[in-house]
Structure formats: structure tokens, C-alpha cells
Specification:
Helices cover about 45% and strands about 5% of the residues. By secondary structure, it is mainly α. The chain has three domains: about 110 residues, no CATH class; about 100 residues, Alpha Horseshoe (Serine Threonine Protein Phosphatase 5, Tetratricopeptide repeat), CATH 1.25.40; about 60 residues, no CATH class. The strands form two sheets. Strands 2-1-4 form a three-stranded mixed sheet. The termini are far apart.
């Protein structure tokens, strides 16, 4: 009898246990323009569900690997047509390029794009159909790459060039044909000052996307795209950047103000994105003069407290007026220091932080 009870006990315990109920998120992901009722509500800071984000990443990687495997089979049968397949993909709005990956460097085959390489968190590359891993060591003299590898490399080059030439490709203003760039170079989202610059092309009245309108569209064309995408102003593109982030990167203050007035969030919570990718962080890194204007429009310090991360960046970039504003408003600084002990501070910044310690 005692033995029977010992065997039944684990089963009884399992039957009596209920799985924990999921806790609902305190804030949905940001999804575009807001109405006036939203503007009157506090915005709690929350993090996206990491498990959901990770699951999505795994699904995308599996789809890309399946695409690459099918292409390998078509190449072996002589059925692949890079130019035709690029046109078909563009007609479906699938503008991903084929990337070459090597140790220390990744780039789309035969192209360079003037956007961040690492704004996505995880293994995804921006604007990627799939990636090809190549050996970074040169082949010995007299040796040729395997036939399948050579066919894939040729297909990748022709596919990317056909995609770039397609009139529907929405990144022609920031992507161009180019020779392979030197190894160990990267458009790092953490150092936008090294690659961001003025608008990539003359103003256009016919941008192909809201992102392009933010980069170099005329004011009228930007207004038209804002009206068309009013419910998706904070939707990131293939480079994991929102239209507001592009306007900041190319220093277009009027475009910034138009997007903010329409309800764009300068500091949205987005899934699987680098914490340096939000428009407000980029504006702080680049020391744009409209940083405080952006923060106020986004409710930082009023509807939601200043996140500690933004306060640390403000100290790092020596923006004294901004730090003083942050310290005077609701914030999440906590009791710890806002800078490393070995980090040199300007006299004005030191005074601002000393005043904080005295309060």
C-alpha cells in the first residue's frame, strides 16, 4: 500500500498544480499616431516579451535557410534566374538582398548601403533575403571555388543589382553598387557620427516610402506619406529604423517636427531592436539641437519618467542643460552614479551632478 501511494503521489501533485497565468503587458508596442485621449494618459515603460521576440527571430532564420536551400537546388538544375526572381520579389514588396558574411565583416553582395548594420538584435542583417558564409582566407593560386559556391556568388551579385535597379526598390537613395569594402568596417548604430550625414539625395516629390520621405522628401510629400501611414508612424523598416530616426540621422529638423506633430514616438519600445536605435538616442548621440524638443513631444519627464539609460547617454555626451532638465523631472536615475569613475567630466557637468548628490 505504501509503495502504491509513493507511485501515485507525483501524479496527484501534477494534477493539483495549475500552470502560472501569464501576466499581461502593461503597455502594447508602439504602433503609430495617437489620438488626444492617448496624449492624456501616462505611458508606463515596459519591455516586449523576449520569448515572443526570440520565437519570431527563429522563424525568420528558418525561412531564410529554407529559401537558400531551395535556391541551391535550382542552381544545381540550372533553373535559377536572378533577374526574373528579383523582379518577382519586388512585385511582392520583398526587397531583401543577399548578404555575404565573413569573419569580422558582412555586406550585401556587390553593394553598400548607408544605414546601420546592427540595429537589429540577433543574427538578422538589415534588408536581408538570406546570408552566405564565405571563407575569409583567399584561395591558393590555381584553385577555384567549388562550382556550387561560384554559381551562388554569381547569382547573389546579379540578384542584388537587379533589385537595386528595380524602380520599386525603396532604398535606392541610400544603397548603391560598390566593390567589396575593407574588412572590419561597420556602420555601427552605437557610433552614428561615423556614417550619418546630410540627406542622401536631392529633395524628391515622389518618395517610395515614409522612410524615404523622412530622409529627403519634400515637405508636401512627407505630409502625404504621414497621412497615408498615420497609424504606423513608428513602424521600423528593414534597417530597424523608424522614419523619425531617419530624419534625425540626416538632420532634417522640419521633417522631425512634422513627424512629432503627427504623433511619432521618439523613444518607442520595439521588439528585437538595438537600444541605440530609437530616434531620441540617435539625436542625443549626434547632439542635435532639437533633442529637448523631441523629448517633450514624446512625454519624457512628464507622461513617463526619464529612463536611466537616456540619462547616462546625456552625461556621456556632455549635454549639461539636458542633464539638469532630466534631474529636475521624474526620472529613473536611482541612487547610483550616472557615469564611470574613470570617465572625465566637464566642469559644468561635474557641477550638475554634484548638485544632484546634494539634493
Amino acid at each position: 500500500m505504501a509503495r502504491v501511494l509513493r507511485l501515485l503521489l507525483p501524479i496527484l501533485l501534477l494534477l493539483g498544480c495549475e500552470p502560472p497565468k501569464p501576466t499581461p503587458d502593461t503597455q502594447p508596442l508602439v504602433d503609430g499616431a495617437r489620438n488626444e485621449s492617448w496624449r492624456k494618459q501616462p505611458r508606463p515603460i515596459s519591455k516586449p516579451d523576449s520569448e515572443t521576440c526570440e520565437h519570431g527571430t527563429e522563424g525568420r532564420l528558418a525561412a531564410k535557410e529554407a529559401d537558400r536551400s531551395r535556391l541551391t537546388e535550382r542552381l544545381a538544375r540550372g533553373e535559377a534566374d536572378a533577374e526574373r526572381e528579383a523582379r518577382e520579389a519586388a512585385s511582392k514588396g520583398a526587397f531583401g538582398l543577399i548578404w555575404l558574411r565573413r569573419w569580422g565583416d558582412s555586406q550585401p553582395s556587390g553593394m553598400l548601403c548607408r544605414g546601420p548594420d546592427n540595429a537589429h538584435m540577433g543574427p538578422d542583417m538589415p534588408l536581408e533575403r538570406f546570408g552566405l558564409h564565405i571563407d575569409h582566407n583567399p584561395l591558393p593560386p590555381g584553385h577555384a571555388p567549388p562550382k556550387t559556391e561560384a554559381a551562388m556568388a554569381d547569382y547573389a551579385l546579379r540578384y542584388n543589382r537587379a533589385m537595386l535597379a528595380d524602380p520599386r526598390f525603396p532604398y535606392a537613395d541610400i544603397c548603391a553598387q560598390a566593390k567589396p569594402r575593407p574588412q572590419f568596417t561597420q556602420n555601427d548604430i552605437r557610433q552614428p557620427d561615423e556614417w550619418a550625414g546630410p540627406p542622401p539625395a536631392p529633395p524628391t516629390s515622389r518618395p517610395l516610402s515614409l522612410g524615404e520621405a523622412a530622409r529627403h522628401g519634400t515637405p508636401a510629400s512627407l505630409d502625404q506619406w504621414i497621412a497615408r501611414r498615420a497609424d504606423r508612424l513608428d513602424e521600423p523598416d528593414d534597417f530597424a529604423l523608424t522614419p523619425l530616426a531617419w530624419a534625425v540621422l540626416h538632420d532634417r529638423p522640419e521633417a522631425v517636427r512634422s513627424l512629432l506633430a503627427a504623433g511619432a514616438d521618439p523613444y518607442p519600445t520595439l521588439c528585437n531592436h538595438h537600444p541605440e536605435a530609437p530616434a531620441l538616442v540617435l539625436a542625443m548621440r549626434l547632439r542635435r539641437p532639437y533633442v529637448i524638443e523631441m523629448a517633450r513631444a514624446g512625454g519624457l519627464g512628464t507622461r513617463r519618467p526619464w529612463p536611466r539609460r537616456l540619462m547616462v547617454i546625456a552625461v556621456e555626451t556632455d549635454q549639461v542643460a539636458l542633464v539638469r532638465l532630466m534631474l529636475s523631472q521624474p526620472n529613473q536615475a536611482g541612487d547610483g552614479p550616472l557615469h564611470r569613475r574613470d570617465e572625465p567630466l566637464s566642469p559644468a557637468m561635474k557641477r550638475a551632478l554634484d548638485a544632484r548628490s546634494k539634493d
